[in-house]
Design a protein that fits this description.
Elements: H1 10-28, E1 35-42, E2 51-56, H2 66-74, E3 82-85, H3 96-103, E4 111-113, H4 117-120, H5 148-157, E5 161-162, E6 166-172, E7 175-181, E8 205-209, H6 215-224, E9 228-231, E10 260-263, H7 284-287, E11 291-294, E12 313-320
Helix pairs in contact: 2-3
Length: about 325
């Protein structure tokens, strides 16, 4: 009996070529196209001089990632007033020396940090389709425990404040910044009750810090009076649709806020403005606003080393007084 072959249509061949090209771009170029993003955020008291905050997150380092390590080291040339690290620094049991080398120039500046689930546990192979599930339907699959205590202790020893379910006060350029942070909500290590309460009203700025931007944490910080909230975890969606943006955040934050700066809604449901142009020009309303910055991060799991329409990034936030 003769064997018959079904011809492949030109459209199918074309679609396959486009998909292959996109994958090659995502894995071969964009995942290493490290980018510095800049935002201006109106959170300081009237008449304040600007403060510059470098926000880094989600490096997911392995020992051989020389280009990423050198790029992070070069961020010290920005001479920020403060560094905020929102976790997921590691992706390998031997990556602590790599991480410390990457951060060594930045440890000379005042800093605060929290850890993420991938600091505690190593990555493991997963079905990529799981990432498209809602967070509550995506069960945690932990790998081996990583040497996170060594990383934490080195950060602390350099003078950075550990905000894992803790508060801290940092003097920056003569201004007092107060912080409240939680351990990673993505693996239920957050204990906001340990830091709950209004920040010191004498402080120039109150900042809330978390690895994963779950609404229960963001809303609690907003209710207590924190003006600026900083998080990572989402990878900005990692695989985004050009012209549309992120499809998922791997938590309960809306995909439209998977990265960048947005005005966080109050827990009573009032709406927020999502600005690439930060200023809304509402005068007194700005003085009471709560702003959220989510970093799209600088890395990926070693088992999913691709990014598409979502470059790896760090952010330089210039904090100013409202206009």
């Amino acid at each position: 009996m003769p064997v018959r072959f079904t011809p492949i249509s030109g459209a199918a061949l074309g679609l396959g070529a486009v998909a292959a090209g996109c994958l090659a771009y995502a894995a071969g170029y964009e995942v290493r196209a490290f980018t510095l993003r800049r935002f201006t955020v109106p959170v300081l008291p009237a008449g304040s001089a600007p403060l510059r905050v470098l926000h880094v997150s989600d490096l997911h380092l392995t020992p051989e990632q020389r280009k990423k390590r050198e790029w992070v080291r070069a961020l010290a040339e920005l001479e920020p007033d403060l560094v905020v690290n929102t976790g997921d620094n590691l992706a390998h049991p031997d990556a602590v020396p790599t991480a410390l080398d990457a951060f060594e120039p930045l440890l000379r500046f005042p800093g605060v940090f929290v850890l993420g689930s991938n600091d505690y546990y190593g990555p493991r192979p997963k079905n990529p389709a799981r990432y498209l599930l809602p967070a509550h339907k995506n069960p945690r699959l932990h790998g081996i425990e990583l040497p996170w205590k060594e990383l934490r202790d080195e950060f602390r020893g350099a003078g950075w404040h550990d905000l894992s379910n803790a508060r801290a006060s940092v003097t920056v350029d003569g201004r007092t910044l107060v912080f409240a942070g939680v351990d990673d909500p993505h693996i239920d290590r957050d204990e906001y009750g340990a830091v709950r309460g209004r920040p010191d009203p004498r402080a120039d700025l109150a900042v809330g810090v978390t690895h994963a931007p779950y609404r229960r944490v963001l809303d609690a910080m907003h209710s207590d009076g924190y003006r600026l909230l900083l998080a990572g975890h989402t990878h900005g969606g990692q695989l985004c649709v050009p012209g549309w943006g992120a499809l998922v955040t791997n938590c309960d934050l809306e995909p439209s806020r998977a990265k960048g700066v947005s005005r966080h809604p109050s827990p009573d449901g009032r709406s927020y403005a999502h600005p690439e142009a930060i200023w809304s020009g509402d005068g007194d309303g700005e003085s009471a606003a709560c702003w959220l910055h989510v970093s799209a991060g600088l890395g990926t799991s070693p088992y999913a080393p691709v990014r598409f329409a979502c470059r790896p990034e760090a952010s330089l936030l210039t904090l100013v007084a409202p206009r």
